[in-house]
C-alpha cells in the first residue's frame, strides 16, 4: 500500500492529467489522496514545485515501464496508445498526459526540465526498442520522435473533440510505419 507521501504524488499526477498544473491545488491533492492537512509541507518542503516535479517523475516512470516491458517495437506502440486510449475513455475524455499538461502550463524551469526529461526518456526507450528490432539508429530516432509527438498530439485532439478517432488513426499509421521499418508480421 502506498505511503501518504506516495499517494500525494500519485494523486497530483492524476489530477494534473485531468485539470492541468495550474488548476491542481495542494488542497485538492490532500483531499484526493486522503493525506492529513499538514503533510504537504512535511513531505514536500520545496512546496508545490517539488510536488509537481515528483508527479511528473511518477508519470514518466509509469509510461517508461510500459515501454520498457514491450517485447517488440509494435508492442511498444500498442501499449502506449492503448494505455492513453483507455485513460481517455475511462475518464470521459478528462484524462490526458500529465507530462504534456505541465510542459504546456508550467512557468517554473524545474518543472519544465522534468517534463523534457520524461519525453527524452520515452523517446530513448523507443529508439532502443527500434534498434533492437533492426532499425538504423538515425531512423530509429526519427521514428521515436514521430511516435511520441503523434500520440501526444492525438491525445490533445481526442480530448478536445471527445472522440478517440484521432488516436485510433495515429495508432494504425504508426503500426504500419513500424511494421514496415522492422519488417514485423502483423
UniProtKB/TrEMBL annotation:
Domain Transcriptional regulator LmrA/YxaF-like C-terminal, chain residue ranges per copy: 74-173
Keyword Transcription regulation on entry: yes
Domain HTH tetR-type: from-to ranges: 15-52
InterPro entries on file: Homeodomain-like_sf (IPR009057), HTH_TetR (IPR001647), Tet_transcr_reg_TetR-rel_C_sf (IPR036271), YxaF_TetR_C (IPR054156)
Pfam families associated with the record: TetR_C_13_2 (PF21993), TetR_N (PF00440)
Keywords, in A-Z order: DNA-binding, Transcription, Transcription regulation
Keyword Protein transport: no
Protein name: TetR/AcrR family transcriptional regulator
Annotated organism of origin: Mycolicibacterium arenosum
Amino acid at each position: 500500500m502506498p505511503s501518504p507521501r506516495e499517494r500525494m504524488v500519485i494523486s497530483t499526477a492524476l489530477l494534473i492529467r485531468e485539470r492541468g498544473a495550474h488548476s491542481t491545488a495542494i488542497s485538492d491533492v490532500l483531499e484526493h489522496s486522503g493525506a492529513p492537512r499538514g503533510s504537504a509541507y512535511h513531505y514536500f518542503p520545496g512546496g508545490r514545485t517539488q510536488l509537481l516535479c515528483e508527479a511528473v517523475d511518477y508519470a514518466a516512470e509509469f509510461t517508461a515501464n510500459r515501454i520498457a516491458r514491450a517485447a517488440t517495437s509494435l508492442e511498444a506502440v500498442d501499449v502506449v496508445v492503448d494505455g492513453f486510449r483507455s485513460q481517455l475513455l475511462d475518464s470521459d475524455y478528462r484524462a490526458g498526459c500529465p507530462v504534456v499538461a505541465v510542459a504546456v502550463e508550467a512557468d517554473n524551469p524545474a518543472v519544465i526540465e522534468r517534463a523534457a526529461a520524461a519525453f527524452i526518456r520515452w523517446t530513448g526507450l523507443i529508439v532502443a526498442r527500434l534498434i533492437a528490432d533492426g532499425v538504423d539508429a538515425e531512423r530509429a530516432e526519427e521514428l521515436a520522435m514521430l511516435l511520441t509527438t503523434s500520440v501526444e498530439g492525438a491525445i490533445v485532439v481526442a480530448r478536445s473533440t471527445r472522440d478517440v478517432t484521432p488516436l485510433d488513426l495515429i495508432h494504425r499509421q504508426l503500426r504500419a510505419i513500424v511494421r514496415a521499418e522492422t519488417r514485423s508480421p502483423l
